[in-house]
Design brief:
Shape: globular
Order of helices and strands: HEEHHHHHHHHEEHEEHHE
Number of domains: 1
CATH architecture: Orthogonal Bundle
CATH topology: Ribonucleotide Reductase, subunit A
Largest sheet: 3 strands, antiparallel
Number of strands: 7
Number of helices: 12
Distance between the termini: 43 Å
Strand order of the largest sheet: 2-1-7
CATH class: Mainly Alpha
Helix content: 40-55%
Bound molecules: fe (ii) ion
Structural class: mainly alpha
Amino acid sequence: MPDGITQVDYDGLIPNNVGLNEDARVRKALETWHPGYIDWWTTMGPEGFQDSLVYLRTAIGVDPKGWAKFDYVRMPDYKWGILLAPAVEGRSIGFGAHKGEPAWQEVPGEYRAMLRRLLVIQGDTEPASVEQQRHLGATAPSLYDMRNLFQVNVEEGRHLWAMVYLLQKYFGREGREEAEDLLRRRSGHVDTPRMLGAFNEATPDWLSFFMFTYFTDRDGKMQLEALAQSGFDPLSRTCRFMLTEEAHHMFVGETGVARIIERTCTAMREAGLHDPHDIAAARALGVIDLPTLQKKINLHFSLTLDLFGNEISTNAANAFNSGLKGRYREDKLTDDHQLLAQTYPVLRLRDGAIVSEDVPALSALNMRLRDDFVVDAASGVGRWNKVIEKAGISFRLALPHVAFNRRIGEFAPIHADTAGNLLSQAGWQARIGSFLPATEDNLYITSLMQPVRATGEYAPWIAPPKVGIDNRPGDFEYVKIAEAA
Ligand SMILES: [Fe+2]
Ligand SMILES: [Fe+2]
């Protein structure tokens, strides 16, 4: 099939628009990998609901106006496919030392190792989140939410396929080994953990899930946006299509948190409770108090910032210079796209103070992507605050300072409060319980995690959504739960 044609072969074992039928070697490699993937999915994927019928969206095309269809599917039968966004005619490399040269259709030999590393790091996050979320089906606050969880999970599975396809097609034996290893590592495992820190943390409850999809899937979005700029065209096209699916994951997170806030505010208003800091009174109503939501924001935001790596990074400079990984929306930026003479302001620790320092822009690309992330993440927090405002409650949620609770980069060695004031070890210890969820906060959240499985009903700590998935009515049965579950 020539490039640029968006038609998808949907009938075979692996739906695709990359001409797998004509590519016997790659098709065989993927078909060989497939049983291991299904084995991973059934043992490490959503626990207890593999036989249930889930109203899922499946990608069947790459036309932005109609790329998906909705239907009941048993998750192990989901059609995980390989879909690349349409080729852009005459596309050239948009940045770095090769700027202006035709985009690569094959891997440039000199960048092979670097590119493989980028694919593996991205690929590793996809199954990791499925593993982290595998126990959540049992405590879903509604069938609607359960369906959204499973939708996110199957799509992360597809994103793994997307990276594995590139590894299998362009990296030969090494690629096959990497594809096997992607199924071998396990989130949180002591000996074979996933590659990045936040992907080894537990996602023990639904509030954590919504925060994870809001913040950590958004890191995924930023990374995919940067890789979508890649001079390696198959990677660019893969990431562009992945972003279409990724938007839903952040929607699940943003609306999930918004619905929790809405429910909390409604319950407070009905009970005549005006003080948002009266945690005991809010909890007596069976809802999640706003200060605890703030602590969860502090936790998930800071964990996610660590995923951007060191503020100053030679790897990031090399990936940019070589044309493999661009900046967020590189194609919309108006500078020289080479950054040899520019500087970029980076927050650094100097003599016990946090100061902004101009450094060579090429070395600060992680910082820049992280800054773009912070702006993107702040917009949803603004919408959450609108919900609180509308309810007439005086409380504002906010993102903590970037120096708060960090394990990687400039601020890893120090302690800071959520406003960015430096704290001594003792000062940190004394206040940690007011910054981050404490044991009793987590126990309270856990106590709320009682499953609700009647159609159209919702757990008492979360409001129903404004509209159904695929415009389905409020009492729609999003998951037909199999007997054994
Ligand atoms: Fe993903
Ligand atoms: Fe995602």
